[in-house]
Design brief:
The protein has 9 helices and no strands. It is mainly alpha-helical and 191 residues long.
Length: 191
């Protein structure tokens, strides 16, 4: 199967996720700068989640550029990823509206853990379909950054019940680690 419909559908879902997140943010009551204080947690959580969705979109785009075709299993693996990412607006709103309370922070991490796991499954499905000698397999390699991200989430989730801000720092650290797009796929495609 060609990959075009999967890419188009995924891009639409990414756009809807970002749209829902911004619509969840409510304007403050009042006209002074101090009126922004109560919505600051919502805004900070939105920024973190926007960066995460952007990272997934960017890496998904690169992944699809290296893929030649998709199978039914890959379509399901992609839907698995999109399912977890579609929960991002919910956990973003819950965490922001509750000032980074332990349960919302932990659930945010769980959604990120499952999204990261789903992305890992998607990459492995694509590699299995295209072969271990494919450009895709060579460009992804052992995916050390992906594995490190999953470990950070596993550490951060229980940490949310002790120090929610430390858990949030772990989430931000993972996002920072992924902000620069992975150049391996681009290098492999250009060579």
């Amino acid at each position: 199967m060609t990959k075009g419909r999967m890419e188009a559908f995924s891009d639409g879902v990414f756009a809807v996720i970002i749209t829902i997140m911004v619509l969840e943010m409510k304007a403050p009551n009042g006209t002074s700068l101090s009126a922004l204080q109560p919505v600051l947690p919502d805004f900070l959580t939105y920024i973190l989640s926007f960066v995460y969705v952007g990272i997934y979109w960017n890496n998904h785009h690169h992944l699809m550029q290296a893929a030649q075709h998709v199978s039914g299993g890959i379509l399901w693996a992609n839907l698995h990823l999109l399912f977890w990412l579609s929960l991002t607006p919910f956990v973003t709103a819950w965490m922001g509206q509750n000032n980074f309370a332990p349960w919302p922070v932990a659930l945010y991490g769980m959604v990120m853990l499952f999204a990261g796991t789903a992305y890992f499954i998607l990459t492995r499905s694509l590699i299995a379909y295209h072969g271990k000698e494919s450009t895709l397999a060579a460009s992804i390699g052992d995916d050390r950054k992906g594995k490190m991200s999953l470990v950070a989430y596993v550490v951060a989730i229980p940490l949310a019940f002790v120090h929610p801000w430390f858990a949030c720092a772990c989430y931000a650290g993972v996002a920072i680690m992924w902000l620069i797009p992975d150049p391996r796929i681009e290098k492999a495609l250009h060579s």
